[in-house]
Fold these 2 entries.
Entry 1:
Amino acid sequence: VSDVGIVGLGLIGGSLARDLAAAGRRVVATDRSGAAVAQARGKGIVATELDPDEPPPLVVLAVPVRATPDWIRRLAGSTRPDLVVTDTGSTKRSILDAARGAGLDGFVGSHPVAGSHESGWDASRTGLFRGADVWICPGRDSAPGSIDAVERLWRDVGGRPRRIDAGEHDRLLARCSHLPQLVATALGTALSRLGLPPEALGPGGRDTTRLAASDAAMWTDILLDNADEVRPAIEALADALEELDSAITDGDEQRLRALLAGAREWKAGPS
Ligand code: NAP
């Protein structure tokens, strides 16, 4: 069983390193500050520092979305001809474009649908990917062997690989992940401006603001990178808020009740 390389030992990269090491894989890794690699080596999770000029056969990039293309270009210049590289980024089109531009034929995009609002090595844990869907976005030129290797990696840590086109992925995630993040951020912003501390919230308020605690740097990257898909989603939300506002302003009980009941029916699903 060959070595696996990981770039970025934060929540996602650190959790992957823990599971792979537990499964008996030899993990080599690198991190911006070096602090996480030192800790992971101390625990026997990482064997040694990854050398980007002489990488192992499979490398996972677990850095923020907008730091990923630089690493793709860096690895495209390595001496290994059969190198397979994947990432974990929450958007896929720009990353696949970067791989195509760099001529990295062994690149296959990944996005594990697992994680939390916490970040960094200290938040990483074993079992994070168990039972999680992992979106797989092969490049136009990805060799079947590269796709198999990446899918096998995720299965080895309990993930469920699902193939999807990068454009379809970015549209879907704009709606089901990026919009909920924006709602929590907007809610946190509004409550803060209204002078309300988080301790004042009840269970419902705590639930709906959980994502307000997400990492600001990571989400800045995601939202700017996927701006063309995120903006129509924001418009749909703004329309819904405006409709609620006007129903309340007009004292239009029927309209307000219909809006509340419509969302309730959506949440309950088809009966
Ligand atoms: P994280 O905990 O903040 O870890 C990011 C890692 O990347 C850290 O090792 C960090 O090093 C390093 N890094 C940060 N900026 C960098 C830069 N400019 N160049 C090189 N390395 C840099 O983030 P994460 O949650 O693991 O996310 C990693 C990737 O997975 C992101 O692309 C994210 O979109 C994606 N993802 C996240 C989640 C989630 O729920 N968190 C879920 C699915 C996918 P330092 O420690 O030195 O800053």
Entry 2:
Amino acid sequence: VTSDGARPVRFARAALIGCGLIGGSLAAALRQAGAVGRMTGFDADWARLERAQKLGLIDAAAGDAAAAASEADLVIVAVPVRASNDVLSAIAPALERAELITDVGSTKLDVLDIAERTLPDPSRFCGGHPIAGTERSGPDAADANLFRDRLCIVTPTARTSPAALAACEEMWRSAGARTERMEAAEHDRELAWVSHLPHAAAFALAAAIGAVGDEVGGLWGGGFNDTTRIAASDPTMWRDIFLANRAPLLRALEGLKSELAALHTAVELGDAPAIEALIGRAHAGRRRVLEMRRRK
Ligand code: NAP
């Protein structure tokens, strides 16, 4: 607390690379909490960068990622996961002041590997993944309350310094989130089942329904809406996640394929007990996963 009684700003200068839904929401939450001072942004999409400034998510727009990061104590990388390589390489020479370099990507192993290979001092990097979001994208979708009471997974490596880990956890708590530490590989394996597979299934389902043409009129209801809402998600973001987490996702897709094949056979044979058995497994599976979250 300063002599005038005010709390000092935790990060006087911050940089946001990628001013979309997640980056914009984090910037808004940190600003609302008074945890950051001046926020400089950069985005590959100039219209989005201008919009982020107009919305007050960032104070200033930089001409490139390195210019945004230079002078920053906190650098947040919030781009689609396969773009992290370009961003981390670009900012690497400009990180003299940075106390914490972090990301928000939905896959963690690849980003940590890139950070270890590209950053001059990987001890100042700590990954994060907020388990919050929507099917929308861009700065107009940003929401200062997006992370309130939500979980953020923090994935330090063996090289992450205790100071960088503490700063990362403090940043997320300032944004309103709870934090939990996890190994990157474990994170990617678990998310393949409970996030990447549901999105893959929703994309395939919506594409299959969209392909039938005249058989489908306007008779859709809750079943269609509930199961395909996330099929409206950003294609670049999900392409990158699927490619970055290939092995765990392929295992999960095999699991889905085998259940679909079992259902196909049961329907073909008119096998009522087999259909009921599959729906029973579905109820038990859903309950089991939801109860695990409640225990955390
Ligand atoms: P978004 O709204 O599309 O924002 C990402 C922004 O990054 C876009 O404006 C994009 O511009 C820009 N960008 C792409 N490549 C760049 C580069 N090389 N340099 C600078 N800017 C670049 O996406 P988002 O939903 O915020 O996702 C950002 C990250 O958060 C992703 O890694 C995603 O996996 C993770 N995440 C998302 C969610 C979710 O629900 N959406 C939840 C948790 C974590 P262009 O449009 O020109 O490509």
